[in-house]
Amino acid sequence: MPSGNMPNFKVKHIDIKTGQKSIIMNELDAVDMMLRIHDRVKIKKDLIKVVALVDVSDSLVMRGEVGVYEDLLDEFPVKNDEIVEISVASIPPSVEYIRKKMKGTPLIKGEIYSIVKDTISHSLSELEIAAFLMAEEYVGMTMDEVEQLTRAIVETGRIIDFGETVVDKHSIGGVPGNKVSLLIIPIVASAGLKIPKTSSRAITSPSGTADTMEVLAPVEFTVDELRKLLQDVGGYIAWGGSLNLAPADDLFIHIEHPLNIDPRPQMMASIMAKKLAVGASAIVLDIPTGKGAKVEDFESARKLGNDFIELGNRLGIKVRCGITYGNQPVGHTVGPALEAKEALQALMGKGPNSLIEKSTSLAGMLFEMNGITPKGSGQALAKDILRSGKAYQKMRDIIAYQGGNPDIKPDDIRLGEKRFIISAPADGYISQINNSSINAIAKAAGAPINKGAGVMLYAKMGYAVKQDDPVIEIYAESEQKLKCAQIIAARKPPFLIEGMLLEEVSQF
Amino acid sequence: MPSGNMPNFKVKHIDIKTGQKSIIMNELDAVDMMLRIHDRVKIKKDLIKVVALVDVSDSLVMRGEVGVYEDLLDEFPVKNDEIVEISVASIPPSVEYIRKKMKGTPLIKGEIYSIVKDTISHSLSELEIAAFLMAEEYVGMTMDEVEQLTRAIVETGRIIDFGETVVDKHSIGGVPGNKVSLLIIPIVASAGLKIPKTSSRAITSPSGTADTMEVLAPVEFTVDELRKLLQDVGGYIAWGGSLNLAPADDLFIHIEHPLNIDPRPQMMASIMAKKLAVGASAIVLDIPTGKGAKVEDFESARKLGNDFIELGNRLGIKVRCGITYGNQPVGHTVGPALEAKEALQALMGKGPNSLIEKSTSLAGMLFEMNGITPKGSGQALAKDILRSGKAYQKMRDIIAYQGGNPDIKPDDIRLGEKRFIISAPADGYISQINNSSINAIAKAAGAPINKGAGVMLYAKMGYAVKQDDPVIEIYAESEQKLKCAQIIAARKPPFLIEGMLLEEVSQF
Questions:
Q1: Which of A173, A216, A259, B82 has minimal CB crowding within 10 Å?
Q2: ipTM
Q3: Considering B262, B286, B384, B469, which one is annotated as catalytic?
Q4: Between residues 226 and 285 of chain B, which touch chain A (CB distance below 8 Å)?
Q5: Considering the entire predicted model, what is its pTM?
């Protein structure tokens, strides 16, 4: 629309964060301007001009007023009652690229970069980001596109240059109780490799690695603090959320969560972007495989592993993948404090076999990739380091340098005091542990916010149990949450005993 | 969560319509309750309990307050400062069904009904509805599913029983200037068939049938008024928007528009639901086919036609489809007043051939389907009715009964007075008319809100023109909009002349 004659509106601040660059107009003004909800307008005050999405109200703003949401004020600092000009904006190129992808056409570098950049600047609506993610899910992406998506996420985020060679490990997630990082990082650092582990807090699970580590030591640091930690101790376990390594990723996850999707290209780009951003030269990827995990069968796991390796080659990162057992929780505990305790016990020489095998095999892969041992001998070295107490000593250093108490003993860790035991209803073998039920119980009990909440598994698959033997114990910090968790457990049985009657079908 | 111990919140009215059942919580309260944006809560006051989606603010509501949006107040009438209880809600079944569809599993009757019902009750978030529509787009639907979707849209809307046999016509849209209904309805009604035509206002086009008819007579009526109109005149052309025939459809369109998708199953269900709701026994469907139309080639048009016929069989509606020419506008005008004028001229004996051929062939199909003529003779009867002036007389009755002036002459129709002619830059033949450019120009000029705005085509495909001959004239009601339309026309040429230099590639 030619300038000089645009409709004028009086600003009214609207104190809501929408996560989008939005304004709100009176319904009748919108009709006059032929605008519909989610359409875009240019809003202009003196020399500042921004594009915003349109919301409509028939009462919050009067005719002639425009509501300016909080999200827009940083970039468009206007005061209440100031006059701004509004005109219809054209569709931004990134929206056209999303439409192109929706129609099945692969995108090129600049197009993907434009989508990622406009996601970060909140210039795309949630519906448009959802459309992009759904197109990734249904149309898929070529390896070229995944590479460009990864690079765009890195380029729009922060890069940490440690000034030396670093390695990393990552799990694609999906299995409860996966506290292996608390063993792998000290084992790997003990051998002299530098391993700067940033991890997430739980989004949909009862405990993220950052939640678990936080039981032992603080996990929030500045980039400068992390650089010093790595230099001084050789490894750390920190929360990556505040580092701004991949801000686009957080916004994509924010949309994936309510849609309950996890498009493969996005997942790969998200993981590899964070590794590229810290300059990792070699990483080992844990791919838990099994019923209820993200990958359900070996063939898919192998395919995913090979895709990660190819993506790594394109990005200059050596990748090895470990396909691990994902049918039931790793170790015997789920929930921040319970998992921290179990990891500490394992470092002190008293860990469950499943946890030790998994941790040392993944750590061993990093040794082999970096020439610390020949191929085939990595795990043996990792076990030696663990058994010798060197890994425990390194973990004490890590805890101390991160600001925790290195003398902490497993029994010092405070667990939830409200507890409930679920016993075996009959003699028999445990034939199934239900990951999603265990997750739901631990979350209902309060994990990860209540650090002491979670689930202890006294028996796992294949264990013989007698009637009334304890199988699972729920830990909570309040009676109310314990009760919630019990209700979930009753609705969604966390385990099955072979020979148990699953359902009775009868007319009588 | 067990009741009796739920957190209490103080109500604060938030005067915004979100189109979703939403509340807004303080960020810290949400964290405490482990709630993320778009999660669901149960909100309870005395005996009234509703489920709502969570929005988050760090300033609009204080800790302990809950903002209740306008959309929720009808169903959950609470006053400011009243105390309500809030607890985490489980995911509604319709969300699970959407996830099932996203994974590629066909849905059964009850599942589709549940999604449509929860869409209407605003219990699904925009993202969830978007996910359903994207799954339709990418996964597709079986004919069983399309049938159930159609029935669910009808069952959740209003049904009009006219107490007698009625017929109908519909265009799937996509071609500008398609004012054929203004000829078909009076032609068909002249032969004694009852044809209650409800139509839409333009959503993305410069003029819907309702917008065009409104130039000649009012188009908004109650159901009782429509019943009387049909009884008295045998036909009408009304706006369907306020009749609540398919409220779900409006909500789906509201999401399809910003996503720029039009999933085939949804389009079929949307059209057929409105026909089923008025009890149509036979319908003729216009499928404009060609570059820039919704269907680009004959094979796809035939496939779509056969799908409509099968869906009709399942619903007890006889369907015939006319594949029509969609490469350029129908007739010579685009925009409400220009189109109304052209339709009136055609009824009075002076219409362009493309408009008359198309209208009479579609009307003739309805004659043949209803035994008014034998197969092969329908169009001849339609032309007779048009030429004899009977259709014009019937249109005068329709205009009069709808409350317009039956004596209106084509020249009485007020056209936009700001005009701009685009002339042929060279001698030659018109080799292409660009539908999407014509649409964009007419909309920029102000159509359909400004009834007098639009585009007149002096030449169409194949016409020989001399340099400086007028090809297109833009009509607008303000200089500003005329200027906008000119800018669009310069960017996106509305026509090509054969032999015109498309682009010069040169080093000099």
A1: B82
A2: 0.78
A3: B262
A4: 254-255, 257-261
A5: 0.84
